[in-house]
Amino acid sequence: xxxxxxxxxxxxxxxxxxxxxxxxxxxxxxxxxxxxxxxxxxxxxxxxxxxxxxxxxxxxxxxxxxxxxxxxxxxxxxxxxxxxxxxxxxxxxxxxxxxxxxxxxxxxxxxxxxxxxxxxxxxxxxxxxxxxxxxxxxxxxxxxxxxxxxxxxxxxxxxxxxxxxxxxxxxxxxxxxxxxxxxxxxxxxxxxxxxxxxxxxxxxxxxxxxxxxxxxxxxxxxxxxxxxxxxxxxxxxxxxxxxxxxxxxxxxxxxxxxxxxxxxxxxxxxxxxxxxxxxxxxxxxxxxxxxxxxxxxxxxxxxxxxxxxxxxxxxxxxxxxxxxxxxxxxxxxxxxxxxxxxxxxxxxxxxxxxxxxxxxxxxxxxxxxxxxxxxxxxxxxxxxxxxxxxxxxxxxxxx
Length: 399
Hints:
By secondary structure, the chain is an all-alpha fold. The protein has 15 helices and no strands.
C-alpha cells in the first residue's frame, strides 16, 4: 500500500525527467489540450437548436447525443489511463488527438442521429484521454510543482469553457454555420497532435511484459477508489450547480433572465480566479486537508442558498461557490498522482472517470428537484455530496 505523504515530493516514474525546454513543450501542449477539450464539450450545447433544425430532429433527441459524448468520455478516461501506463502517456495522448480530430471532422458532415452519436462518441473518447492522461503527464513531469501546473492547466480549461460559447454567441447570429466550429475544433486537434509530437517522451511506467492483473492494479487499490468516490461527489456538486443555476435563479427567485444566464459566467469566472490563486499555493501544504477544507467551506456556501431571500444574494453565492470549488479538481488529481507515481495514468484515469459519472448524474437530480417547489432543497443536497468528498479524501490518505 502506498503511504506517501500528501504534500507532493515523489519523483516521477520511469527514470529521469526530460530537459526543462522539453517539459515546457509538454506543459504548453497539455494546457492547449485542456482548452481543446473544453471547446469540444461546449460546441453542441451552444448550437443545439440550430443543429437540431439542420438535422431535422427534435432538440431533446439531439440533447441525448451529449450523454453519448460523456459516456464515451467515461470509458476513455478509464481505459486510456490504464493503457498509458503500459504504452506511455504521449502515445496515448496522440491517440486522443486523432480521436478528437476524427470526431470533429465527422460532425462537419453529419446528416442524422446515428452519425451524430458516432461523432459524439469519438469526441468524448478523445476528450477523456486529453484531460485525464494529460493531467497525469503533468503530474509526472513536475513532481514538486503539481499544484502549480495542474491548476494552471485547469485555468486553460476554464478559458476554453468560457471563450468557446462566447465566440459562438457572437458568430452564430451572423449566419456562421455551427459546422464551422467543429471544423475549427478539428484544426485545433491537428495542431495539438503536432505539439505533442514535439514533446519529450517518458518511458512507460510498466514493462512490456506486464499482464492484465498488473495493469489493472489501481482498480483494486482502496485509496484510489476512495479518491474516485471523492471526485464523483465534487463533480456531482459542481455540475449540479452549473446545470441548475440559470433555472434556479429564475424559478426560485424570479431573477431577470439576463442575470440568471450570467450566473453561469460568474461561476466559471470564480473558478478561473480561484485556480490562479491555488496555483500559487506552496507545495508543502498538506493536500488532503486543503481539499477537505475547500469541500467543507464549499458545502456551506451551497447550503446557504436555502437561506437566500433575494436573487442578488443567491447570485453572489454562486460566484463564491465557484471560487471556493476551483482548486478541488486539480488538487485531487495531483494527490492521486502523488500517491500512485508508478501507475499515475491508470490511477488518475479511474478517478477522473468517476468524476465523469458525476457529470451524467447531476442533471438527473436537477431535473427531479426543480419542479413542484423542491428547488429549495437542491443545493443543500449538493452540499452533502461535497461533504462526502471531504470524508473520502481524508479516508483515502489514511488507507
